[in-house]
Amino acid sequence: MAFYDYKVKKRKEGELDLSELKGKVVLVVNTATGCGFTPQYEGLENLYKKYNEKGFEILDFPCNQFGNQAPGSDSEIHEFCTAKYKTSFDQLAKIEVNGENEEPLYTFLKSEQPDEEVTGFKNKMAMAAIGKLSKTAKSKSDIKWNFTKFLVDKNGNVVKRYVPTCTPEQIEKDIADLL
Q1: How far apart are CA 99 and CA 110, in angstroms?
Q2: How far apart are the first and last CA of the chain?
Q3: Distance in angstroms (rounded) separating the CA atoms of residues 107 and 74
């Protein structure tokens, strides 16, 4: 299967057929509202505002698998993000990214980009600590924590995977280059 073959549950009702995103650059992110990385929503919104009209989309999947940091309902999570971070991109339905109930799209994303590149001493230390906290990451390719990001090009190729410590500002150049 390819990226465009998947359908994912929308926050309210129905499904989003990813084939509707053909020709767009897409950032796929598993998020949480009570995480130390939650302020990244501000950077994500800035990227969305800057590049959406040029063909950029964000797929925001709330996930409660890491420290129970996304405990609310889909609508509560959406209300929090729009109120606190003024997000204008929509969240999809809450999912699991690891394990037996993992969203099939995430199985695909992890198979396409199984390794996380961690650079810099601070990031390596943070990711080592996160690795010890994560209870659902059983294999090297599993998602380690909230705000892991996958970048998908206009042709549906999963071109890069970013660790949670990598901020939206740090990946802006990669997005701009693909657009």
Answers
A1: 12
A2: 24
A3: 22
Instruction: Please give the structure tokens belonging to residue 123.
Output: 């990031």
The Cα 11–Cα 71 span in angstroms is 15
Cα separation, 104 vs 34, in Å, equals 25
Sort 117 into a burial class: Cβ within 10 Å, 0-12 / 13-18 / 19+. exposed
Query: Pick from 9, 90, 106, 81: which is nearest to 48 by CA?
Result: 90
Catalytic residues: 35
pLDDT digits (tens, 9 = 90+) for 13-46: 999 999 999 999 999 999 999 999 999 999 999 9
Q: Is the pTM of this model over 0.90?
A: yes
Please give the Cα distance from 56 to 45 (Å, whole number): 12
